[in-house]
Design a protein that fits this description.
Layout (H helix, E strand, L loop, with lengths): L16 H17 L3 E8 L5 E12 L5 E10 L1 H89 L5 H26 L9
Antiparallel strand pairs: 1-2, 2-3
Helix pairs in contact: 2-3
Length: about 210
């Protein structure tokens, strides 16, 4: 623009169309308030290319306080603005990648938690199945132990019956204690078997 073309608000014709409304608004506010202004916008050069400029304006007042002229400058800040824009885009891209990666990691974590839960259920089912299988395999050996306990109880009862028929009752307490001890051991064995089959915590003893 020539000096004549830049008078009043003619300078705004050289502002990029996308920045023109913003520039005019800031300038009109400064005019109405009689205050200095500063803004960044794109100006068209003599070759038609647009570059970023930082424009500052300072009003000159007459004695009555009216603005009679504006003094200002426009500094080429295109390199800084484009560098800032590049940095902003890089930051936006980084934030986008971080957000995407966060979603991927959260999905992977959710999948891992589900897999862990399923595996835990499968392992628990397997352990219970192995328990029951072991219980079945132990039945033969346990039945032998149980029969020994029953033999002690039945034998004590037979001896008490024989002693009673002979009138020898002084030894009955001894056979009663033997029968009760065998019965207690049988009950304890049964309790351990029930605890094992019902997944209760066992209290192993020698």
């Amino acid at each position: 623009h020539s000096v004549a073309q830049a008078q009043v608000e003619g300078w705004s014709e050289a502002v990029h169309p996308d920045d023109r409304a913003m520039s005019n608004t800031i300038f009109r506010r400064a005019v109405d308030a009689g205050l200095r202004f500063q803004l960044e916008h794109r100006f068209r050069r003599h070759d038609g290319a647009f570059r970023w400029f930082q424009t500052r304006g300072e009003p000159l007042h007459d004695k009555a306080g009216r603005i009679i002229e504006w003094f200002g400058s426009s500094t080429d800040v295109d390199d800084q603005m484009r560098a800032q824009e590049t940095l902003l885009r890089a930051n936006e891209m980084l934030e986008l990648r971080v957000a995407e990666r966060t979603v991927e990691l959260q999905n992977a974590l959710n999948a891992l938690e589900i897999e862990t839960a399923v595996r835990g259920q499968a392992e628990e089912s397997l352990r219970q199945s192995q328990k029951m299988d072991a219980l079945g395999r132990l039945t033969g050996g346990i039945s032998h132990d149980f029969n020994n306990l029953l033999t002690g109880i039945i034998g004590s009862l037979d001896l008490m019956t024989a002693r009673i028929s002979q009138g020898r009752t002084r030894e009955l307490n001894r056979y009663i204690d033997m029968a009760r001890d065998a019965a207690d051991r049988a009950a304890a064995l049964t309790q351990r078997l029930l605890a094992f089959s019902r997944q209760q915590t066992l209290d192993p003893k020698s």
